[in-house]
């Protein structure tokens, strides 16, 4: 069987997980041939643990070695575009870990390069796109089963992180080292999913709290109001200080509603007729019967409840397999890399709205303004070099 020669850059929690998936045979079309990590202690461990793999301390050496066909970047967020660009420029395919980058200016440069180099593949590790639950929800919306979207609400506060989590590394929860807090670390998958399913918002206005309940410089509390092209609105709420946590997604359409609890249980209610038609044709006697509980709701809508389970590791390994099969056989990509900018731009816009106190129009997003504002905060930290 033909296999893609694969290399992992960064052997932390994610990198080691991907190595395990491939070595355990969960990614049939991949052969792990090389691992790179700049930490000397890890290098010694890797040589011992993987005697048959090439071990590198410099990602450029691995990419230019001729040993790998493709790589994944499991490194700090700021490095994702830089490493991806170097690999692609050397004819090596790239699967970028989320997010695509920290700020839109660097991600745009990467996307522009990819657009003019069709010989290499660039994809994103958006494993939630490989979740059967969200795939089914996306199809329900795309097939028009709940009609045009009127509102989206997602409260996702299951990211509880105690202070020791932030204190374990000097770069964590900093503007210069990580580029933000919950929006760039914990919530990128949800920022991707809401756009993948409901469409890219046109405007955003936010209220962010920085170091609200934790001793950190970046955001640990976010409330964002979004607007879509058709006038629909959306609310996105997330934080890292809610120990009890809530994960609830609602998508309201003209012909129905989807409610997702804990990213597991889905309730879909489909109206027999659109709300517009019901509103137009229902007389006052019908309204009275409805309000008094005398109307059979089955005459108005149907209800479907389902759950979707995916075994641990299947989502990530599925993206790895899809990436390999796209390169080897032309299979459609689950997450084309160019789409990674959508989540980065939305996170940037949420930041910028609070920083400026203004509503941000995404099609007119000012890359330089955001970078300047980000660098102001990096300069105040006085721990890291400014970005450009």
UniProtKB/TrEMBL annotation:
By its UniProt entry, which InterPro entries does this protein fall under?
Gfo/Idh/MocA-like_OxRdtase_N (IPR000683), Gfo/Idh/MocA_Oxidoreductase (IPR052515), GFO_IDH_MocA-like_dom (IPR055170), NAD(P)-bd_dom_sf (IPR036291)
Which SUPFAM superfamilies does this entry report, sorted A to Z? Answer: Glyceraldehyde-3-phosphate dehydrogenase-like, C-terminal domain, NAD(P)-binding Rossmann-fold domains
The record's section on Gene3D superfamilies has: Dihydrodipicolinate Reductase, domain 2 (3.30.360.10), NAD(P)-binding Rossmann-like Domain (3.40.50.720)
Q: What positions does the domain Gfo/Idh/MocA-like oxidoreductase N-terminal occupy?
A: 4-118
- Protein origin, superkingdom: Bacteria
GO molecular function terms noted in the UniProt entry:
nucleotide binding
Q: Which residues form the GFO/IDH/MocA-like oxidoreductase domain?
A: 134-258
| Protein name as it appears in the record | Dehydrogenase
**What is the originating organism of this protein?**
Halolactibacillus alkaliphilus
